[in-house]
C-alpha cells in the first residue's frame, strides 16, 4: 500500500511499525551461522496470479523452490498432503495408478450429509482413520480446538491427491525471493516519498501527525479499543536452533500431527534458501493461545463479532483496513498482496477516474 501510494498516487507516506524491523511476519535475517532464517516461521511464496507475481518481481529476483512437506506418523515420514505414495507407505499397498488410489480412498471415505466443520471435510474425503492420523491432532494443537469445532475452510485448504505429486502447492508460480523477504520489502519501501518509523505504536504518535488517510493493518478490534469484545486469534512461539550437521531433515518442513508432541512442525531453512553450509538452522513451532495475533479463528460466533467490527470500520472516514488482522481473514501472502493492490485501485485510482 505504501509503495503504490507513493509511486502511483504521488503521496507522501509514513509507515509506522511497533516492531523494530520492516517486513512484518515475513521478516527474515541471517543467524549467527549465516543461514537466512524466518523469525516468525516459514513463509513460502506461491501464487497463480500473474499480476501479483509481476508486481513483486519489481522488487526481487526469484529462486525457484517447490515446497515439500513430510508428516511424522507411525515411525514413518510420509508425504503431506496425502497422495498415492502416502497411502502405499501407510497401508503397505502397491497402488500404481490414480484410479486405484481414488478407488482406495473412496472405500475409506465416510460421506456426511452436511459439510459444516473441518472434521466433516476430511472424514467425508478420506475416512476416520486418516483423519485421526494426519489431521485431528495437528488441528487440535494448531487451533486449540477440535476440528469438529472449526469451520470447514481450515482443512479444505489442504488437498488430497491420488497421483504421486509430492509438492505441497500446485500453483503456477512457486518461488522464494532470491535475497529474502526483508530485502524485497526494503526495496519496496526505498522511495523518496516514504518515511519509516519503527519500534513505535501508531497510537503514540497519531495525534501529533497531520494526515489525509490512514491504512490500518493491525487487529481491527484493537483499533476500536476492543469496545465490542476481543476477537480470538491463535499465536505461535518459536524455538530457533543451529545444528552442527549439514542436514537435519530431508525436506523444508516436517509436520508432527501426534498430540503427544508439543510442536506442530520443524522447519529447516537451507531447503528454502538453497544455501550450502557445514551447519544448518531449524525452527520448532509451538501453537499458543497467548502472544502476537497470527491466525483469526474461523468459527461462526467469531465471524459474527467481526461483522460488527466491520460495520464500525466501514463507517470510519479516511481509514482503510487491509490485511489478515484488519479484515479477520486467513489470507495467504499472495492473497494479501492482491487485496492491497485492489484496495489501492479502488481508493486512489477508480475514485480519481470517477
Automatic annotation (TrEMBL):
Domain of life assignment: Bacteria
Flavoprotein in keyword set: yes
Domain UDP-galactopyranose mutase C-terminal: 134-330
Essential cofactor(s): FAD
GO cellular component, one term: cytosol
Protein keywords: FAD, Flavoprotein, Isomerase
Keyword hit for Flavoprotein: yes
A single GO molecular function term of this UniProt record: UDP-galactopyranose mutase activity
Entry EC no(s): 5.4.99.9
Coiled-coil portions: none
InterPro entries attached to this UniProt entry: UDP-GALP_mutase, UDP-GalPyranose_mutase_C
Family: Belongs to the UDP-galactopyranose/dTDP-fucopyranose mutase family.
Protein name: UDP-galactopyranose mutase
Originating organism: Sphingobium nicotianae
